[in-house]
Amino acid sequence: MTAQARFVVAGAGGHAKVLIATIEAAGGDVVRVLDDDPARCGEFVLGHRVEGPISDDLIPAWAHLVLGVGSNRARKDLDRRLHATYGVVVHPSAVVHPSVTLGAGSVVFAGAIIQPGTEIGRHVIVNTAASVDHDCCLGDFVHVAPGVCLAGHVRIEEGAFMGMGSCAIPDARVGAWATVGAGGVVLTKIPAGATAVGVPARVVGSQR
């Protein structure tokens, strides 16, 4: 992020609060916070008044949009309906190797580490103190929760969610829109749309 880059944050909940703090820690300027919930409009998040609804009309052409929404499906829905220029936000305490690619709209929070050769898609969340080792691939709309540890060559497909403190060993795969519960350990492959929990992570349900 360039110093004094200007951002609009879409969303005003807890995730947006951390995102605003991250933008400001990195030297950016939050010029507007938007939310679709009328009950939130007029409230303040870290000193920023919430406006709404989330729409292209309220996003200045000179600002970068970031989606401050933790739900992967909600971020995808917002991306479909908006036509803004998206920014990338990285906390100054995060360690991101120069060879890492970060897709538009992705965010990396405090204390996270992303090692060489990793590819990060669009609107991905690498949350607080998560560790993503070398040559991983995180698809669009993935959310890697706080304290997650991904070993080398792990692939997390579009929309998947890695719960707090979960892990994946080298070469593990998590299918599209799958969920790995908090503390789960992925040893092989979690199918698309599945919910897996435990050590090792076992499928307990499916969203499809």
Would you spell out the secondary-structure blueprint of this structure?
Layout: E1 6-10, H1 14-25, E2 29-34, E3 44-45, E4 48-51, E5 64-67, H2 72-81, E6 89-90, E7 95-96, E8 101-102, E9 107-108, E10 113-114, E11 119-120, E12 125-126, E13 131-132, E14 137-138, E15 143-144, E16 149-150, E17 155-156, E18 161-162, E19 167-168, E20 173-174, E21 179-180, E22 185-186, E23 189-190, E24 194-197, E25 202-206
Structural features, described:
- The protein folds into two domains: 6-81, Rossmann fold; 89-193, Hexapeptide repeat proteins (UDP N-Acetylglucosamine Acyltransferase, domain 1).
- Helix content is 11%, strand content 32%.
- It has two helices and 25 strands.
- Strands 6-9-12-15-18-21-24-25 form an eight-stranded mixed β-sheet, with helices on one face.
- β24 (194-197) and β25 form a beta hairpin.
- The longest helix has 12 residues, at 14-25.
- The mean pLDDT is 96.
Please give a quick description of this structure.
Helix content is 11%, strand content 32%. With 208 residues, it is mainly β. The protein has 2 domains: 76 residues, Rossmann fold (3-Layer(aba) Sandwich), CATH 3.40.50.20; 105 residues, Hexapeptide repeat proteins (UDP N-Acetylglucosamine Acyltransferase, domain 1, 3 Solenoid).
